[in-house]
Design goal:
This protein has about 325 residues and is of the alpha/beta class. It is about 40% helix and about 20% strand.
């Protein structure tokens, strides 16, 4: 509770004042300066060693983290009402697809969104404010999937949930060519995994918009080592996430699991990849972008060098909000 109070006060402090406070503690890596507000927030948010959590403790930890995220309110809210409807899309009433309809839509396309959380944490609720904000800015209907989490549901359960979601959207009269896949972190991996699955079946889709995606389960890139701690997401946590998702060693060979194994052109008309400078996942996301580009795909990388993994859900930070508004403007151009 005390941390929440401190964060609320911190968000009221002008950035110029924060810069004065941290004038002798500037964080520079790869010739870029870590955003001042973001750096300050790393001091305020409690540290949590996810890699030390036992399987028997995961459900309790999930609930605690979700409550914490919902209470912090670091994501900006839409300025106008967003209409939301939860659709149940499976026979055992356990798979929710939340629909967001903005006050105005000006295109016929829709977005299928997948939340982040390493496949182990988070839900449509933790990302509710973020997706609502996206929907308003894009003036586009968004469907956010509450896929089943690992380790109770290992690979490819979440992918199968995503396949069920797109089939449900098709049954509602939507053409795959009018559906864009979007997600952040693990959700971006799931979006790309679904793209790869459909590409392997020669099924065209509109686009994929991947926000700092997790791509490589090997977790051995330079950025994984350089930003292995202190920047919200750690290398140890990433290994923990991948370990809980993997069901078999053979998963590593599949391009729906290790995205860098893609070996042929995908069927998405557009790919956008969002990267952050102070993110352990930066290098693998950039490598994925390069791999797709070299195979003749239309790829655009938008890089925000002073920001961190997770900034898209923390838009009350000034630089994060500017970055999100920037990449949403680019996204809207193709919708």
């Amino acid at each position: 509770m005390f941390n929440n109070f401190l964060i609320k006060i911190f968000l009221l402090i002008p950035v110029s004042v924060l810069k004065l406070i941290l004038v002798f503690h500037t964080d520079i890596k790869r010739k870029y300066i870590f955003d001042t507000q973001s750096q300050f927030l790393t001091y305020l948010l409690p540290k949590f060693d996810l890699h030390k959590v036992k399987d028997s403790e995961i459900d309790e930890v999930r609930n605690k983290i979700e409550k914490k995220r919902l209470s912090l309110k670091i994501s900006k809210l839409p300025s106008k009402k967003i209409f939301k409807t939860d659709h149940i899309i499976d026979d055992d009433n356990s798979l929710i697809l939340r629909e967001y309809v903005p006050y105005k839509t000006d295109n016929k396309n829709i977005i299928l969104f997948f939340h982040g959380g390493g496949y182990v944490l988070s839900s449509v609720n933790t990302h509710d404010d973020m997706v609502a904000y996206f929907s308003e800015k894009l003036r586009t209907r968004i469907f956010s999937l509450d896929y089943k989490l690992a380790p109770e549901n290992k690979f490819p359960v979440a992918l199968n949930n995503a396949i069920a979601a797109i089939e449900w959207l098709k049954d509602q009269g939507n053409n795959f060519k009018n559906i864009s896949f979007c997600g952040d972190s693990a959700g971006a991996h799931l979006a790309a995994s679904l793209t790869h699955y459909l590409s392997n079946n020669q099924t065209p889709i509109h686009s994929q918009f991947l926000i700092y995606p997790m791509c490589d389960p090997n977790c051995n890139s330079e950025s994984q080592k350089l930003f292995n701690e202190r920047y919200f997401l750690t290398q140890k946590a990433m290994k923990w996430f991948w370990g809980h998702l993997k069901s078999h060693d053979k998963d590593m060979e599949k391009d729906t699991f290790n995205l860098l194994n893609i070996s042929k052109k995908i069927t998405a008309d557009h790919t956008f990849i969002i990267t952050a400078g102070f993110d352990p996942l930066h290098d693998e996301a950039e490598k994925y972008a390069s791999t797709l580009h070299n195979m003749g795909n239309s790829v655009k990388q938008l890089h925000y060098p002073s920001l961190f993994h997770g900034f898209a859900s923390m838009t009350r930070l000034k630089t994060a909000n500017n970055a999100v508004n920037d990449f949403l403007r680019e996204y809207k151009k193709i919708l």
